[in-house]
Amino acid sequence: MYKELLNKDKKISVTGLGYVGLPLALELAKHFSVIGFDINEARIQQMQEQIDPSKELEVTAFEGTDIQFTSNAEDLKSAHFHIISVPTDVDEHKVPDLTLLERASENIGKVLKQGDYVVYESTVYPGCTEEDCLPILEKYSGLQIGQDFKIGYSPERIVPGDKVRTLRTIPKIVSGYDEESLKEVAAVYRQIIEADIHEAPSIKVAEAAKVIENTQRDLNISLMNELAIVFDKMGIDTHEVLAAAGTKWNFLKFHPGLVGGHCIGVDPYYLLHKARKLGIEPEVIAAGRRVNDYMPAFVAKKMVQMLLEQGENPSECKVLVMGITFKENVSDIRNSKVADLVRELMDFSISVDITDPYADGIEVEAEYGLVLKENVNKNYDGVIIAVGHTVYKSYDTAYFQTITTERAVVMDLKKLYDITTLCNFALWRL
Prior knowledge:
The chain has helices at about 1-5, 20-30, 40-50, 100-110, 130-140, 180-190, 205-235, 240-245, 265-275, 285-310, 335-345, 360-370, 395-405; strands at about 10-15, 35, 65-70, 80-85, 90, 95, 115-120, 150-155, 170-175, 195-200, 320, 350-355, 380-385, 405-410, 425-430. By secondary structure, it is α/β, with parallel strands linked by helices. The strands form three sheets. Strands 3-2-1-4-7-8-9-10 form an eight-stranded mixed sheet, sandwiched between helices. Helix 4 crosses helix 5 (about 130-140), helix 7 (about 205-235) crosses helix 9 and helix 7 (about 205-235) packs parallel to helix 10. The relative contact order is 0.08.
């Protein structure tokens, strides 16, 4: 398969052209003939014009590539090596939502041919590829795994907003249904990855490795968040404590914060779901999720408390929230905990304005029913710096004085500013 792909006798398809799929498709298209498929026609049109809808890639990323962008599933018939990189989320009950993954598997199953390969990159729980996706492929193709086609799993590790650790430089885990498929999948990825290729012994091991990467980070951040709650009661600055503790060589440098996005805030629920199906209640993982999900409410209550201390009536106050994307310097708003924070503030009848130089106002309104402000006002009783966008780091005392009232509360959730920079305000840091 690999040699036929390299000679362009056969094609690769990539289904799902988001922040994971598009960079992957373009990198593959520098060496292979690629079909990039997405159900969103508007996004496809942008990519055909060499525009990344996620605003992660420059136009140069499209240059020198052999790629066809399409929203027509029929075009997938001409491919023989299929990669699925659609998003995997959770529903309102925090249960894994496999709708997009199942739909993508159905589309590929309908075009699957003898000798084809299907590789999944979407984050799932251990066993999902073989127990949930494979039956769909077999049902719609009429083919049988091993005898007619092969599957593999290679979890995505792309870091949105990171211009140093890119697709090519991040070690890649690969796995296959059998030894032959493992070697073929590894060969394809080795063509585009400069870092190490780790050949996992099974698909389940590769799935588990991915889901615990972010579960581990979630737990470490939840500890920092719990410490921040405790230290706040003690009147201690958490960042000063961490700076002191960090002088020990083996102290792990995690920080408190709002844990959103489509990885850390979602992946642990996939592991929880699988464990519970097996009759196991993972207490540590669940506790970490509870702490991190509580943080928007904690910050909102702290703002109310500080406004009261300043002699203000919260229901008559106006607060500016700076940033709504799930992390700094990206446009992605999925699972943003800032949106939860805004709702918590509104529950106290606080008037809230939101600003963000990266977020798309139409997407924010569609996703959360919230409106972005293009221009901020000049009479805010409180300001919350919720996302650490680089542009915010240039703001100084004079700037904040121009947009706030005399007794304003400023909350720096990302430790962007030195305490002396905001000494004229009632300052609080997470």
